Amino acid sequence: MTGKEETLKEGVSRRIAVIGAGAVGSALGALLHRAGENAVLIARPAHIAAIRQHGLRVDGDTGNFIAPVEAAETLNFRPDLALLTVKTQDVIAAVKANQAFLMDVPVVTFQNGIRSDELVAGILPREQILSAVVLMHVTYSLPGKVIVVYRGKLILGRPYGLRDSKLEEVAHILNQIVPTRVTDNIQGAHWLKLIVNLNNALPAITNLTMSQVYADKTLRNLAVGLMREGLRVIDRGNIRLESLLEVSIGLTKLINWMPSGIAGRIAAAKVRRLTTVWPLWGSTLQSIQRGRPTEIDYLNGEIMELGKRYGEDTPLNTKIVELVHQVERTGQFLSVDEIRQAFEQ
Asked: Residue 206 and which of 35, 44, 213, 238 are 20 to 30 A apart at CA?
């Protein structure tokens, strides 16, 4: 066994770089620091300045604490492990900016959608890449502060290759802070997460919490429609899905066949179970609130593109991508009546 492999073993303080420490990345870095790991957050200047002055404040489902974690704009050392937590559209730039220090380092992708592994593989060797599906909800409220609304779980796998000891070691590290399961079908897990995440666009165009979205019949039925459209396209592509612990393939497909009203009420009940004293904003809305580009082209846009490939119409997801870009461009959120009219055109 090489020295490099030994650095990932239990009982050794590992240098773990979190590249792109926004909401999820900051929470992971703070939790790793609390667990005794040597985490370094690679973040934007305002976030770095706040962390250096006051530490990283974490509230919510993982307890309230301040992590005096190290923060910097780019890597200047070779870590033992790197967590890539930027938005999908920033993956290439982030990896290239830190590439000199990432050779032979396990890199875990944490992006929504299905593209990030492919993007990283265009820069780094495939054997370095691990992939995580994130089932946690974190809000980046202010520089230097995040709220873990729902601790959730992680699913980890190899997008290129078979399960091995390195994958198990990284899973063990992450399991210290968030329950982590290993899968042999990480791509299928990403696709199912994409399906259940198609509703992320609805808070983004309304400025409503997820609970408020599902309290409205029009928006609730639209959320079900987006999911059904996605499932139809995925079925056409013969994509093998993977259950997400609390989100089973069976229940997801059952929602596809039951009456819309019943499906909407089931989805609303699940959202209520995630509701806490902290509002559940979608990550797409958080990007808009911070004036940052969203991942919508890698979420609902992925269903739109897959539909084109297989000759399946995707009018709901196509329109929702258009509406999110409209809100990004204008800064004006839409009322439920305006959304209803947009889909009736």
From this structure: 44
